[in-house]
Amino acid sequence: MASMIFTDCSSSTTKARLLPFSRILLLRRRAAGVTLVRRLATLPNSSSRRPLTLRSSHSQSAYVTVSLATEKSATAEVIDGKAVAKQIRDEISAEVMRMKDAIGEVPGLAVIIVGNRKDSATYVRNKRKACESVGINSFEVPLPEDSTEEEVIKFIKEFNDDPSVHGILVQLPLPSHMNEENILNAVSIEKDVDGFHPLNIGHLAMRGREPMFVPCTPKGCIELLHRYGIDIKGKRAVVIGRSNIVGTPASQLLQREDATVTIVHSRTSNPEEITRQADIIISAVGKPNMVRGSWIKPGAVVIDVGINPVEDAKSPRGYRLVGDVCYDEAKNIASAITPVPGGVGPMTIAMLLSNTLISAKRAYNFQ
Ligand code: NAP
Fold first, then answer.
1. Which residue has the higher pLDDT, 40 or 195?
2. Which of 195, 210, 325, 347 is most deeply packed, by most CB within 10 A?
3. pTM for the full model?
């Protein structure tokens, strides 16, 4: 039974029953009668809370103390992405207010969505809500599935020329008749808040160059390490996965911070042995519970990017989310670990807001 398998990590990932998003929506709808609003993250048990000092990179004060959950029986510190993301949103909100008061302008984010995919619509809605929550203006262009590439590019060009827009996102995936590369290349590099433009990726990879924007999810991983005061310099890091949007930029960011980085991918012959050498592990694969306790060096820090829906008959929704890392095993071996959900996930949108604010400050030369 999938739910038992993934509760205790007792079986291999090959038995994972991953759910496509369409099925998740179906299960969600079925479950709607039981629970309409269900929190993804488990609230920390107040009796097991202890204060931990988090570093803040946005606020004037260098350190902010928040209460973080720790497992009673485990040694690993739980890296609470939800709390950190909230802290970052508060900092951004204060900065947006300061900008508005000083120059009468606020940052603006434009999102173009083509077609009727429900998952894309959900992501876009979440981005809009996040913008609203910090005072960033959001502009949305929903286009029909049968729009042409030229129509999408026309809107991108309008946003490129619009001084009230500081970030442009094209929600992926695009319909199959469109050339994704042509469309993404049309986004001005100054407004590429996703950080996917080849020039931004290229600058990230080069020594002595600074990208205008860093891709949001890997940026969120590094931000978590910073805010928890985890040393990166001189450490051995293993990044599992080499995608353009997570694994590769994560490895580049770690290298820029003077870690010694190894990338593990689907053709790596001895991933367990290599990963066990790491002081810091970032896993971005998309395979539930692939990284077992035996892959982790005692005391290592584990950042789990994976978000994998697996069937769970006990859940009112019929599924639950797990990471790439077998949390139940890893928490007893690692010194710190991100949960799924509630770890890296909330950081991605926080970093999108952060990139949009950076872009607006740059546009208005506002310090
Ligand atoms: P992706 O494009 O599918 O890339 C997966 C990577 O994992 C590839 O580089 C692949 O290697 C590697 N891989 C596959 N099987 C492997 C194996 N058995 N051993 C080692 N490496 C293996 O995925 P992605 O877009 O990077 O996303 C990865 C995960 O992160 C997904 O679960 C996704 O949902 C999640 N994610 C989360 C966030 C967030 O906000 N938290 C954001 C983005 C993605 P090859 O290159 O050799 O094929």
1. 195
2. 325
3. 0.85
